[in-house]
Design goal:
By secondary structure, the protein is α+β, with helices and mostly antiparallel strands. It has helices at 3-22, 83-95; strands at 26-27, 40-54, 61-75, 101-102, 105-112, 116-118, 121-135. Helix content is 24%, strand content 44%.
């Protein structure tokens, strides 16, 4: 799969999972997003990391690895604490469980980091590590 196909496949599933939870409050790379008046929102980042050769011939393939990061922001000092944020993370983990296969993308691992304060929001990141094989010829 090409980088574009990998990104689009992962992003389609991310958006399908997030839309019922946050509506259209999703910030995409290289697109303006205004957080004014928004209590909960998410951002997505696609990060191709390595490309390893699996053979020497033109008909061999490459192992493409990387990660999709979804950051979930909730209003700081909310009466709900981080419950909504963790609910969103749980729904994403249901879609991107370890070993899941989407087209020819294999989800290797899904991790969540500790939360931290960013401006007037509490932010937590979910990282979806993947691998996919790309035919050369």
């Amino acid at each position: 799969m090409s980088q574009l196909q990998i990104r689009n496949t992962l992003l389609t599933q991310v958006v399908a999972t997030l839309t019922p939870l946050v509506g259209d409050n999703i910030a995409f790379e290289n697109k303006d997003f205004d957080t004014t008046g928004v209590d909960t929102w998410c951002s997505t980042h696609f990060n191709p990391v390595t490309s390893d050769s699996l053979g020497k011939g033109v008909l061999s393939c490459d192992d493409e690895r990387g990660f999709m990061q979804v950051s979930v922001f909730v209003k700081l000092n909310s009466d709900d604490y981080d419950n909504q944020q963790l609910t969103i993370m749980d729904e994403l983990k249901k879609s991107f469980y370890n070993g899941a296969i989407m087209d020819s993308i294999v989800i290797l691992e899904v991790t969540i980091n500790n939360g931290f304060i960013v401006d007037s929001y509490y932010k937590r990141d979910l990282t979806i590590n993947y691998t996919s094989y790309q035919q050369r010829g």
